[in-house]
Design goal:
Its EC number is 2.5.1.72. It is found in: Cytoplasm. GO terms for molecular function: 4 iron, 4 sulfur cluster binding; metal ion binding; quinolinate synthetase A activity. This is Quinolinate synthase. The protein is of the alpha/beta class. The chain folds into three domains: 3-132 and 317-332, Rossmann fold (3-Layer(aba) Sandwich), CATH 3.40.50.10800; 142-215 and 345-376, 3-Layer(aba) Sandwich (Rossmann fold), CATH 3.40.50.10800; 221-299, 3-Layer(aba) Sandwich (Rossmann fold), CATH 3.40.50.10800. It is built from 16 helices and 14 strands. A four-stranded parallel β-sheet has the order 4-3-5-6, sandwiched between helices. A four-stranded parallel β-sheet has the order 8-7-9-10. α3 (86-95) runs parallel beside α4 (107-116) and α12 runs parallel beside α13. It binds iron/sulfur cluster. Iron/sulfur cluster binds at residues 67, 106, 131-133, 159, 218-220, 281, 315, 317-318.
């Protein structure tokens, strides 16, 4: 795609100084996102047809996140792929028979797919699509943080590089973090948590676990504002508030339900309300509205008196995924994700522990002996 068909966005994110000698002060750093211009109707239809054909020809399947463009969500499902949260994306890609995975999301999702499926070709629409949590947790500083706390079990969120995963004991996503940290706490373990401070704070409050935390944040969820949210709730007194736990504590405290993307979808389906206010990336609105046609979904406010105007409730890096690039990478094999095999093997250990734990959890409460067994594997 030519540069004229792209919009370049400057993005600020925070990198905390959590090193043993640091003062735990966040430094604002800069990144960018390159967002494709929306194709017109004829081009859009032609691109979809081309992708459908190429998926068959190349024995490929689409794996899309809830936050990417609705076209990439619908096309994934229509062609036998999946739209889901990062945990299900990882599972689905590993278990699917296709030899090529086209991962629409951000870089760590493609890396996780490659780590779990090293024999498969993993392609992404744009390899520069990243995440403020990943950017804000460089492996050298993170390793020093771990070295300063050798008595702690290292639990990292999926939104991290392969190198940070390789330095950890357990991986979690927002859909299983609470259960895994609670199980580790029940084993008497103290936790080193990274990188999202809001999700970590939520888990600490819910479980009472002894946790030291990296200070990263998601530039989208960090922007939800409790004061403006309360005003919107007053305007819609019957509405239920659904909040992703990457949001600040003051926003989480107002929620009727707190959950991952899949947790928010479940709550919207099950809760007895006609109107919902949703505090997560607005890419979720497509699935929420499609699955609940009789219900109204309002975006939680990110602006207002205390706004810094960094976000508009949509991730600039998720927005880098577009139809034209999906077609291009399928056709040319460009944008293949590579992970150093030795690093991938080490990074796979905490991922496999998470997958083993969540598989066991589906059968019921996970006994401590099994948690210990999984943690030792
Ligand atoms: S929405 Fe936030 S957590 Fe998700 S990829 Fe974007 S910056 Fe990262």
């Amino acid at each position: 795609m030519s540069d004229s068909a792209l919009a370049i966005k400057a993005v600020d994110y925070e990198q905390p100084d959590n090193s043993p000698t640091g003062g735990a002060v966040c430094a604002t750093k800069h990144a960018w996102a390159r967002v494709p211009v929306e194709p017109g109707p004829a081009e859009r239809a032609a691109l979809k047809d081309k992708i459908r054909r190429l998926l068959k020809e190349k024995n490929a399947v689409m794996v899309s996140h809830y936050y990417v463009h609705p076209d990439l969500q619908d096309l994934a499902e229509e062609t036998g792929g999946i739209v889901s949260d990062s945990l299900e994306m990882a599972r689905f890609g590993r278990d699917h028979a296709a030899t090529t995975l086209v991962v629409s999301g951000v870089r760590f999702m493609g890396e996780t797919s490659k780590i779990l499926s090293p024999e498969k070709r993993v392609l992404m629409p744009d390899l520069d699509a990243t995440c403020s949590l990943d950017l804000g947790c460089p492996v050298d500083e993170f390793s020093a943080f771990c070295d300063a706390h050798p008595d702690r079990t290292v639990v990292v969120y999926a939104n991290t590089s392969a190198a940070v995963k390789a330095r950890s004991d357990w991986l979690v996503t927002s859909s299983c973090a609470l259960d895994i940290v609670k199980a580790l706490k029940d084993q008497g373990q103290k936790i080193l948590w990274a990188p999202d401070r809001h999700l970590g704070g939520y888990i600490q409050r819910e479980t009472g676990a002894d946790m030291v935390m990296w200070g990263g944040s998601c530039i989208v969820h960090d922007e939800f504002k409790a004061f403006e949210l309360e005003e919107l709730m007053h305007e819609h007194p019957g509405a239920k508030l659904l909040v992703h736990p990457e949001s600040p504590a003051a926003v989480v405290a107002l929620a009727d339900a707190v959950g991952s993307t899949s947790g928010i979808l479940n709550a919207a389906r099950e809760m007895d309300a006609k109107t919902f206010i949703v505090a997560t990336d607005n890419g979720m609105m497509h699935k929420l509205r499609t699955l609940n046609p009789g219900k109204t979904f309002l975006e939680a406010p990110t602006a207002g008196n205390s706004a810094t105007c960094k976000s508009c409730a949509h991730c600039p890096w998720m927005a880098m995924n577009g139809l034209a690039d999906v077609a291009r990478v399928l056709e040319t094999g460009a944008n293949e994700v590579h992970v150093d095999p030795a690093l991938g093997l080490r990074a796979r250990v905490p991922i496999d522990r998470m997958l083993a734990f969540t598989a066991a959890l589906k059968q019921g409460p996970v006994p401590g002996s099994l948690v210990a067994h999984i943690g030792a594997a």
